[in-house]
Amino acid sequence: MTHKKTSDHLNRLKRVRLADVAEAAGVSRAVAGQVLNGSKGNSRVAEKTAEKIWEVARRMNYQPNPAAQQLKGMRTRMFGTLVASAGDPLRSFLVQYLDTAAVKKGCHTIIGNTIGRMDVGPNQFDYYIEELARRGVDGVFCAVHNWFDGDRKLLVQQHPNTVFYEDVDVPGAHVVKANRYIAARLATRHLLERGRRRLGLVLSDLNRTSCEDRLRGYRDEHEAYGFETDEEMVFDAAKHGGAYPWHDTKTLTWTFPDEVVDIAIDQLVRDEGADALVCVDDFWGATLLRRLRARGVAVPAHVAVVGYLNHYLADWTDPPLTTIDTLQGAAAERMLEMMVQLVSRGPLPTEDRVVEITPKLIVRGST
Amino acid sequence: MTHKKTSDHLNRLKRVRLADVAEAAGVSRAVAGQVLNGSKGNSRVAEKTAEKIWEVARRMNYQPNPAAQQLKGMRTRMFGTLVASAGDPLRSFLVQYLDTAAVKKGCHTIIGNTIGRMDVGPNQFDYYIEELARRGVDGVFCAVHNWFDGDRKLLVQQHPNTVFYEDVDVPGAHVVKANRYIAARLATRHLLERGRRRLGLVLSDLNRTSCEDRLRGYRDEHEAYGFETDEEMVFDAAKHGGAYPWHDTKTLTWTFPDEVVDIAIDQLVRDEGADALVCVDDFWGATLLRRLRARGVAVPAHVAVVGYLNHYLADWTDPPLTTIDTLQGAAAERMLEMMVQLVSRGPLPTEDRVVEITPKLIVRGST
DNA sequence: CTGAAAGCGCTTACAG
DNA sequence: CTGAAAGCGCTTACAG
Prior knowledge:
The structure is a homodimer.
Chain A: H1 18-25, H2 29-37, H3 47-60, H4 66-71, E1 78-83, H5 92-104, E2 108-113, H6 125-135, E3 139-142, H7 152-158, E4 162-165, E5 174-178, H8 180-193, E6 199-203, H9 209-224, E7 234-236, E8 246-248, E9 253-255, H10 258-271, E10 276-279, H11 282-294, E11 304-306, E12 323-325, H12 328-345, E13 354-357, E14 360-362
Parallel strand pairs in A: 1-2, 1-3, 3-4, 4-5, 5-13, 6-7, 6-10, 10-11
Antiparallel strand pairs in A: 8-9, 12-14
Helix pairs in contact in A: 1-2, 1-3, 5-12, 8-9, 10-11
Chain B binds a DNA duplex through helix 2 and helix 4.
């Protein structure tokens, strides 16, 4: 807490104050403040005076001092953006889009990496709850993957203006999420339309709602085409130890368990004769492409592959990976809309608190 | 500038003030402030009193209000991080690491996307210069690619505490950058050690210093091994219209010009018999892998390929791409060190203002 | 060694 | 319709 000042080189330039504008315009600070930053419209000031004040303020390039406004209890026009790690490709664009959307409303975002570098420090989730309150943010965007620790309930309690990205275990929370049911239908439809008839579905863990949603989408779309689905065509990675991408911070490489992917190929392609695979994410998709080639299976000639995420890697696999984009730009905009509502009018009606984003199919060479 | 307050739902909880601590400890605010947040050490307060104050502050969980401190001219402990787009894989980890490093010093970063979404708005570089000054940041990290517009001189003038990532055209600027000369030597050495003897070098534009550095590294390393180099083994993409990755925000895909890559293969592999290619970046590397396969050239059996960046895609190409990591984590830490120096002691001696980071070879399947 | 007071730049009751 | 004054939570001369 010991912040030395004496020797700091902050080089802050003298800025125009409200008082300067007031003086130049020949009015009191109260009136100037009322006109320039005030709340109740400009009702209390004569039209002419107001215009004069605006003119002077513009000429002097007056910008209110946010610290002073904050001290008086005004909005800071700052939001916190919590994310496990901002560099994570699954979140980095969301971080960017949230900021861009905030700037359009004259606001800014303070970034909070709750994990940061895995090798560097512990989970900072709770630290940020306190720190963001101290900084006086108007609200918090929480895009921390839900498999990371952190007291979400405390977050919402301390920051009622919190909007989550993706599901969270807090009743009544405000959430924007990608619709995985539709994602699965889009992938399935695309493959059926291309004449594929034996579609394998690769899931990470059927105990998760997100995977249930995919399974429903996969089934409903088959049904809509009058096709049957078949238990044997569904692969649940969780039953084989699971398969997740892992970034090794020592070797600076990503790894993904080939063994599990090979089991999936055995079951779906070799045994069940799948001619297409709908994957839970692009890491699965990319690894399948590589393992299928290693086993002499041509993509897309023999087997087509669809991923999910539209992660950076999708354009650089061979062949490039057809996948589903989660439209994080649209998600960010909806999150900001929600936040604006929260700040100006308080909590939304319960039925409006969960917004689902309809994802988009991106066709590339793997189908 | 009209920030309505009346109906805002900020829900700010009452926080413990310095005055509360002072009262509870039975001292004046001045003394409490001196002990808890003061500058000149604790010299002016009796040991016993100071301890008592600390004890009370801890018990009450006192945290100074940064807005009030800022108003009195103290550091805000906030830095701006300017970046063309925070989602950009070339920068997203740097953004994260800068924040993580800042947090370790009790500071935070405000993100500024100067481009944001290409389709959404104009360059915001100059806007941020003003806005960050208004917010009173202690300094600015500028990681905007130098091919984007923006008045860097104005930035440094308004924010003398600015640290750049990668070269910038401002005399005397504080800069941290990756050493591309060493990068080229590392790639060259690795290939020579693996027995390759005909190394092609793929550059983006020989008019850039960064490419000159690579060429020098490539030559010096050959020389160190007693091998000759050969003009014909250097491919300058700029002479063929250039080749850069392009993210199409409509189709949500990345594209890279296959035609130029094919010309490079014609020249280096077909005509000159290259058995290895050192590339200017991973986009080149990944596209070369794909085009070489399409032309029946086996990688790494016939031709080895080395990229540069260690971009996400490097682990998911087929084969995975050997490349050079630019160690953005280390860069971020050096940038923060520089910033701390700048804030506490002012500009560094001229000879210490440019720091080069030694990159690291990451070996994967393409060599 | 410690306290009372002024002031940073604003907003907002409260008087006129 | 407008101004003088108080106060947000701090820091820092200035007195004692």
